[in-house]
Design brief:
The structure holds 2 protein chains of 2 kinds. By secondary structure, chain A is an alpha+beta fold. Chain A has helices spanning 2-34, 36-56; strands at residues 62-67, 73-77, 80-85, 88-93, 101-102, 105-107, 113-119, 122-125. In chain B, strand 1 (62-64) and strand 2 form a beta hairpin. Classes of the chains: A alpha+beta, B alpha+beta.
């Protein structure tokens, strides 16, 4: 009887924990599905900002070709990357040395690629 | 008694089953929450790495040889002493020092810190050091 009581006690708490976890996980999954465009534009702009930062701090001339798919709307404006996916726009600052000129440029990814180029002290996207 | 097999009681098996079920769901829960945290709060960490990366190639402070070549991640002590970093650090703090702690540039007093090994050229020889970026 003593062992059986412990098992029932554990089953109750296990059930409680599992129900709470299922409820919270469902909330997180729903939130991520609802905000998928915002999340994707955020990840896109952060990744692009980091790549641009990396390229601009290089002492070499660079030409990078990145596969991104055909649906994108990206531009560099006022030293910031703006990525638009459907209705969601995310803006991210680019960290780069002040002798680098981040040229205003944009890419609609019509070829499925984004080109990041650095020549001398200028960096831009195509 | 010698050689007798140890038989696990049914109660023990039930307890183990419960623990395994809870562990599985907690693992699943952690997976979801970690993903969610990485989506929501990685901005400062990512920027700290960008600052670190940009500094490693900042022509204003890295070593330049007589052939006008720049060397990434090798800092020039003389240039750093003049304090001409060509980067807007914003909310970030940078500390560059040699491992002997004989020389130090900048200061970081932040809760979150990232370190990377670097080399410092002191005008005569190259020394191992570290760069810390904090926010």
């Amino acid at each position: 009887m003593k062992g059986s009581l412990i098992v029932h006690f554990l089953q109750f708490f296990a059930g409680l924990v599992i129900v709470l976890i299922i409820i919270y996980s469902s909330y997180l999954i729903t939130l991520n599905i609802m905000k998928r465009n915002w999340i994707n534009s955020k990840l896109f702009s952060e990744t692009l900002a980091s790549v641009l930062s990396s390229v601009s701090s290089s002492t070499f001339n660079v030409s990078l070709k990145i596969l991104v798919g055909k649906t994108c709307d990206v531009n560099i404006l006022n030293n910031k990357v703006n990525v638009r996916i459907e209705n969601e726009i995310y803006t991210e600052e680019i960290v780069f040395p002040n002798y680098i000129k981040m040229k205003e440029s944009n890419s609609d990814c019509s070829t499925g690629f984004i080109f990041i180029k650095k020549s001398g002290d200028e960096v831009w996207i195509e | 008694m010698k050689g007798q097999a140890f038989v696990i009681s049914e109660t023990m098996i039930d307890v183990l089953k419960n623990f395994l079920t809870i562990a599985f769901f907690i693992g699943l829960f952690l997976l979801f929450t970690t993903y969610n945290i990485s989506i929501k709060s990685s901005v400062e960490k990512r920027k700290a790495f960008d600052v670190m990366n940009s500094l490693l190639g900042d022509k204003c402070v890295i070593y330049q040889d007589e052939g006008e070549n720049f060397y990434r991640a090798i800092f020039d002590k003389n240039k750093l002493d003049e304090g001409d970093i060509c980067l807007d650090l914003g909310n970030f703090g940078v500390e560059i020092s040699d491992f002997d702690n004989l020389w130090r540039f900048g200061k970081t007093q932040y809760s979150e810190k990232f370190s990377i090994p670097i080399t410092v050229f002191d005008g005569q020889k190259f020394k191992f050091g570290k760069m810390v970026v904090g926010y």
